[in-house]
């Protein structure tokens, strides 16, 4: 029982979405009542299992958890938003909307309800409305980098790359050391044909996370595009020598990584090596 | 187009592995045959609207094809929303590019609701007059244009997925995170 609780705790901390694991470990704890031995953590487990149960379609388990939480915390907005999620999961989108609206009428700053409302609009197939709602939320909560990340994704769904890039810039101001955010920004820039800036961002990825394969591929893609293009008159542009050096570095590292014994399946290695040669 | 068991299995395993997000990939056929879709290669499960890794993947699949007497014949995707069977904007662009090189190319959207059933879970699209249009009545007696090589593929695949097969599938995103992942062949799955 201690192990299950620890795994659940780790998953709460990492925020990974592994509903099958959560339900497999959490359901016995809840059914047997052993969850209550976890004191204050018990309610976090109930909430965690409720959400995981919705993910895997176990409505009964979810309602059981929500009921326990309602009993313990009557009137709580946090629990009511869970009820809203349960309604969303069974397809009752309009009713879910009413739940979130009611919470926000009492407290317009309620973060959980605001966020659910954005995703509800998206689930209803109303992307513009979802974007507007999230923009409004971020006007107030501009340090919520997860909000900016979600907005970037909403824009990307609509292929609005410039707006998505802007969102990633906000994310990076708040989380400058996260190489995955630099990577996402780099790939958006590349998609916009901004190879110069994309290259800088891919380099930052590899700087923050040594031998990052995806970052190295990105460096090669940008360097080869820039080397093939006409020389830029912009003084701030990376010089031909530097481009060639970066391309060489990325090439060397990729060859070393793929070439290590047992590093990659034969088919992957052959394709990657040939790709490197022909870039 | 006739789909081999492998070409039916892999896209569904890909969709089942990532139920909370969109997935996409390509279909392969032998260079000489025109109508047998022999395999599928899963590509992405996140950032599907971004291009750099798509370019890398498509080039590497192409190189793999040339080395093995194959060619890219189609594109597949699955939406994160259960009932959504529309071909996404990004999907249309990718499929159109494949079509540009190979006019026989088609697209398939996975019918998520049919994954765990005995019914065929592929909804094919073809490019007609510059628009990607659904092919009605595919995989039925009324339309022999799209069929399965093995009529029990849906049932067998559903069973295999219930047994946890999708965990063993690797796509290009997985490969970029860990180059040991066998994304081009996926021996562990077939």
From TrEMBL, chain A:
Domain EMC2 TPR-like: 80-188
Coiled-coil ranges (or none): none
Keyword flag Lipoprotein: no
The organism's place on the tree of life at top rank: Eukaryota
Gene3D superfamilies given in the database record: Tetratricopeptide repeat domain
Pfam family, one: TPR_EMC2
Membrane topology value: Peripheral membrane protein
Locations listed in the record: Endoplasmic reticulum membrane
SMART domains, sorted: TPR (SM00028)
Keyword terms of this UniProt record: Endoplasmic reticulum, Membrane, Repeat, TPR repeat
InterPro entries: EMC2-like, TPR-like_helical_dom_sf, TPR_EMC2, TPR_rpt
Assembly description: Component of the ER membrane protein complex (EMC).
Role according to the record: Part of the endoplasmic reticulum membrane protein complex (EMC) that enables the energy-independent insertion into endoplasmic reticulum membranes of newly synthesized membrane proteins.
Family assignment from sequence similarity: Belongs to the EMC2 family.
Full protein name: ER membrane protein complex subunit 2
Automatic annotation (TrEMBL), chain B:
Cross-referenced InterPro entries: EMC8/9, MPN
Signal peptide per UniProt: none
Chain ranges of the MPN domain: 1-131
Record family assignment: Belongs to the EMC8/EMC9 family.
Name of the featured protein: MPN domain-containing protein
Source species of the chain: Linnemannia gamsii
